[in-house]
Amino acid sequence: MLEKLTGMDKEAQAKIAGLTTIGELNEYKVRILGRKGELTALLRGLKDLSPEQRAQAGKTANEIKDKLEEIFNRRAAEISRRDLDLRLQEERVDVTLPGIPVQKGGIHPLTRIRREITRIFTGMGFTVEEGPEIELDYYNFEALNVPKHHPARDMQDSFYITDEVLLRTHTSPVQVRVMEKMAPQ
Q1: Angle CA 57–59–15, to nearest 5
Q2: What is the C-alpha separation between 106 and 7, in angstroms, rounded?
Q3: Is it the case that residue 108 has pLDDT exceeding 90?
Q4: pLDDT digits (tens, 9 = 90+) for 111-156
Q5: Residue 125 region, left (φ>0) first, then alpha (ψ -120 to 50), else beta?
Q6: Alpha helix locations (H) across 104-156?
Q7: How far apart are CA 122 and CA 52, in angstroms?
Q8: Exposed e or buried b for every residue in 161-184, given b needs 16+ CB within 10 A?
Q9: Distance between alpha carbon 173 and the CA centroid of its chain, in Å?
């Protein structure tokens, strides 16, 4: 029995050293150490041995099993490390190659609609006018008949830069500028 265990141990070690994939290794591990494996089959024969031989064979079998488990694990780590190194070599990125071009975005739907409406109205004879964002007090309030003490002129509603200059609070000052620039028809 001890000769069979020792022979199986040497044969298994030689075979493990020659295996090259994790799949092969796991298959062989099941064949040797599995529930229906070669070592289990040998251990079933322990009942036919004398108590002294059984104790010695059981001890040897457990030592062989532990040693083979360690060898299997070490070989699996070697194979995994080798596979990882190979994969890293194959997947190496060449940073000198041109990158993937970034796709340009599209026009926002609201911008598209605004442009379409503008196109329609300019086609009908209207014009698009723009005015300054920083406006004189005259165009922002006085020309629109907003009195000096109107609540809209308060500091919390209007952002004054100086006493006579402020940020435009609405679009009406542009209308005043257009009326001054264009003659009535």
Answers
A1: 80
A2: 73
A3: yes
A4: 999 999 999 999 999 999 999 999 999 998 889 888 888 887 776 6
A5: left
A6: 109-123, 137-140
A7: 109
A8: eeeeebebbeebbbebbeeeeeee
A9: 50
Tell me if 143 sits within 8 A of 176, measured CB to CB: yes
CB 167 within 8 A of CB 135: yes
Helix (H) or strand (E) holding 24, with range, is helix 22-33
Task: Answer for the pair 129, 174: CB distance below 8 angstroms, yes or no.
Answer: yes
- CA–CA separation, 56 and 59 (whole Å): 5
The structure tokens listed for 179 are: 């009326």
Q: Which of 141, 178, 136 is nearest to 161 (CA)?
A: 136
Two tokens, residue 45: 């024969």
Residue showing tokens 């070690």? 13
Residue closest to 12 by CA, chosen among 30, 27, 32, 26 = 32
Q: How far apart are the first and last CA of the chain?
A: 119
* Mean pLDDT, residues 5-23: 84
pTM beyond cutoff 0.70:
no
